[in-house]
Amino acid sequence: MPDRSPPEGGAIPGAAAAAATLVAVDDDPIVLELLRHIIGELADVQVLAFGDPEAALAWCRANEPDVIITDYQMPGLSGTELITALRRERHVADVPIMMITATGDRAVRIEALNAGANDVLTKPIEAAEVRARTKNMLAIRRGQRLMAQRSSWLEEEVRRATAAIAARERETILRLSKAAEYRDWETGSHIVRVSLYARVIAKRLSLPAAEQDILFQAAPMHDVGKIGIPDSILLKPGALDEAEFDVIKQHTVIGNQILGGSAAELLQAAAEIALTHHERFDGSGYPMQSAGEQIPLRGRVVAVADTFDALTSQRPYKAAWPPALAWAFLEQNVGLRFDPACVAAFIGAQPEAEEIRSAFPDTAAEGGPQRQWSAPIAAAADGI
Q: What b/e string do you get for 118-135 counting C-beta neighbours within 10 Å, with b at 16 or more?
């Protein structure tokens, strides 16, 4: 694995040194020329001289200087007025500024410092002192830029680390879903379709894009609890009796126990869906007989998606329903089994749903637990 830590000395990968830009502002051209000569002896410093403070302000608003040196008494804008205006510009707010004044008045110095000057120098200026103070301000600016670059580098590293964690969470979801698939009649395409249906419903409900993605990634785990159901019941080709159905209902609780307790948001969502996707809007579902908005929205969304796909899919114990009958069943059970808003959202996306159903058919032979999951989910991850 490549070392992504910054090199010793604090340098940031890809950060290149550039000549610093110093803006000098004075209405006296002789002083400007003197400053240009004094500062010009410093390495890697470009001096831009302005005799008009308004012109200097305009340039600084459109560009980003590294250091600013300004006179105090100038026509148009005084040095303190210029500093005040510069400090209002976000990108110049922290740029080191030195004011040079011909007056030794203490009040003027305090006024300049209060306006935002970092340093105040009194005329007549001495070349060595100007260079020393300028070097100090340039060092401050280099430190500021280095911190900004390091902050950007750290943000990118955090983004990479977060993406890696999210990828591991998704892999956990996929592998657990694949494990559940080995113990059930349902095909891998069922898992894909339910995930895509759930995302379509979430989009139609105008849920945030992040929540749409969470539903898509977590929905495959809705039946993971079937891992804990005995084969004699789970794989029974005929109808279940009441006692057997009571056992099968426990897959919701088992799934929640498998997935619950994680700090990962994706696994928390999957645990919530596993527990609640068989609840009914009228309170007649299981395992908790929750009703209405007591049922988490994620569970209500997956209930619609899962039921529609179960109805339109062939199983050893039932034939696939024609899509028209499945859509009618959803409408007939609005407010009973299903959240009216979720059903309306899904019906509003009927063309998309039919496209999904056609794109991901059940291809494995019926008659036993299916083992064709990885390829469909990989294709589905790219969207329809």
A: bbbbeeebeeeebbebbe
